[in-house]
Amino acid sequence: MNSSMSSEVDRPEGGAIEQLARDDVERKKFLKMAGKSMGAGVAATGLATFIAACGGSSKSSSSSAGGASTQSGTTSSGSGGDLAIVNYALTLEYLEAQFYDKVVASHLFHGAVLSTLKTFREEEHQHVTALHKVAMSLGTPAAKPTGNFPLKSAAAVATLAATVENLGAAAYLGQAGNIKSKEILAAALAIHTVEARHAATLNTVLKMSPTPDGAFAKPKSMSEVLAAVKPFIA
Amino acid sequence: MTTSKELTSPELAPIEVHGISRASFILRGAITVGAAYGATAVGPYVGNALAASGSGDIDILNFALTLEYLETNFYKHKAKTVGLSGEAKSLAALIAGHEQQHVDALVKAIQAAGGTPIKKPTFVFPVTDQASFLKLAYTLENVGVGAYNGAGPSLQNPAYLAAAGSIVQVEARHAAAIGLLTNQSVTPNGGFDKPLSKAQVLKAAKPLIKA
């Protein structure tokens, strides 16, 4: 992951995220700087291509690829912003995938609920793979964060899962309007509704409404989401 | 994909809807094949004001409105005809309220854009009991997710994209809730809810729209 990129992106995500959650000025700087990793001529991976590549495939991206991580003097209009958004989503997906890994390993759940959680785990890993590929096509992908999730009881974990999924859905909705590439937007929409399905399922299991926002789901901003996930980053 | 033969044949009759304006009827004759969300089957639903505003967006909103009318009718009226009970009844009531709000919002958006919202079509739902009702509900919600995801990137106006995103998230939640109730997958498409083309959506919806 070495690149000529500014060190902020290379720093463990915990540091960068903490900073972002605290400071909106820092967030703007991050977005600007993350955008600079976009090399000239690098195109976003087509939706069909990366979904095909990621559907069921457990191949990881070649670590020697390193992405097109040149420090570009110019940021292509919007594409730098897209990389920042993709990396933001990737960070959240890394956390969700890790969370479900731990949940499944905890042996707190059994039967149908366990089966559902395993499915969600698989789907979050698919999201990680896909978003990592897209990030690679745009520049330097976000580093994998280290999650820190309390696993005290089945009820507490299920509640946490619901919180995380509802937050994830709101995060995607919050960024939809900011994505410049139509292909990346299509990918984000395809993931967004899956997070919504996860959220609604967990809400229902917890005997809460599948639609806590009613008829119109509410978006959350990047700073709001990062502040909310901060406690779960080691 | 829709072919020109389909567009001019009597098979198109089932997708005509009540309240279609005369101007739209004439427009229908000029429909060309090929536009994903432009002037194909949505053409008949489009009013005169198209030329002035972002006609592509209005087409898409009217297409969404057709689906929302369909869902509202299904959850409000067909649900009563069939007679639901327990969780199915309360979930249908919850969803009906949402779909009506979606209808209202889309009608307002189209009018604000200077477009003409399609008139509410009449529908026919081949379901007779709770089980078949829920089975169709599952299909409708999942098709709805695909429809919005398919249309979303074509929207020019960012406000419409925000609205579409807000609505489709709720449709996905509906789909999951119904899946849970009926022991079907809450994520039938796996990790990615693939976008559906207009043709794919109409294939599911057409049989339910009465001539």
How would you sum up this structure, described in words?
The complex is a heterodimer of chains A (234) and B (211). Chain A has 234 residues and is mainly alpha-helical. Helices cover 62% and strands 0% of the residues of chain A. Chain A has helices at residues 7-10, 13-22, 24-35, 47-54, 79-105, 111-138, 154-176, 182-205, 222-229. Chain B is mainly alpha-helical and 211 residues long. In chain B, helix 5 packs antiparallel against helix 6 and helix 5 (130-151) runs antiparallel to helix 7 (198-205). Residues 1-54 of chain B have low confidence and may be disordered. At the A-B interface, helix 6, helix 7 and helix 8 of A face helix 4, helix 5 and helix 6 of B.
Please outline what is shown here.
The complex is a heterodimer of chains A (234) and B (211). Chain A is mostly helical and 234 residues long.
SS content category of chain A: mainly alpha
Largest sheet of chain B: none
Q: Name the poorly predicted regions of chain A.
A: 1-27, 29-77
Q: Tell me, rounded to a whole number, the average pLDDT of chain B.
A: 80
Compute the number of helices of chain B: 7
Percent helix of chain B, as a range, is 55-70%
Flag low-confidence runs of chain B: 1-54
Give me the strand/helix succession of chain B. Answer: HHHHHHH
Largest sheet composition of chain A: none
Strand content of chain B: under 5%
The ordered H/E elements of chain A are: HHHHHHHHH
| Secondary structure: number of strands of chain B | 0
Shape of chain A: globular
Give the overall shape of chain B: globular
Residue fraction in strands of chain A: under 5%
- The N- to C-terminal Cα distance of chain B equals 22 Å
Number of strands of chain A: 0
